[in-house]
Amino acid sequence: MSSGALPNNEGLTVFHGTDIESARRLLQGEPLNREKAAAQKIAGPPGFFLAIEVDDAMFFALRRAPGGILAFRLSWYAIEQLQLAGMVRRQIPPGKTMRFIGEELVLVLEAFEVFNRLREMGEISVTPAL
Q1: Do residues 118 and 59 touch, judged by C-beta distance below 8 A?
Q2: Which residue, 29, 97, 36, is CA-closest to 63?
Q3: pLDDT of 22-57, one tens digit each?
Q4: DSSP code string of 4-72
Q5: C-alpha–C-alpha distance, residues 43 and 4, integer Å
Q6: Beta-carbon count within 10 A of 3 CB
Q7: For residues 61 and 9, what is the distance between their CA atoms, to the nearest angstrom?
Q8: Whether pTM exceeds 0.85
Q9: Which of 117, 8, 2, 129 shows the shortest CA–CA distance to 72?
């Protein structure tokens, strides 16, 4: 089912796997929150992680079962602004039992405010992925 990120003239579609309650709140427009991100982090530094491949996001949704996968459409302007705020693109670090297909966009806590502003501006949209 791997669809990968969907580049087009309007931007890039990436995926976030999370627990079902967090998915619902994000769909309802809840902004990213530093304290919640730090409290909910399972491994590694806190942040907000967007997988390039939907199959990779599925792993993270299943890890938080019951889970869900969201699709985030980022405009090219949003990507540029998030990179200026510290977002990085990298290979997803392998887990003990999992090798991931692709890369991820990592939003550091300091980029949350920029992300939230861009979402309010319509430069970032979110829908259920599946």
Answers
A1: no
A2: 97
A3: 999 999 999 999 988 877 776 778 899 999 999 999
A4: ----BTTEEEEEEEEEHHHHHHHHTTPPP-HHHHHHH--SSS--EEEESSHHHHHHHHHHTSSEEEEEE
A5: 24
A6: 13
A7: 29
A8: yes
A9: 129
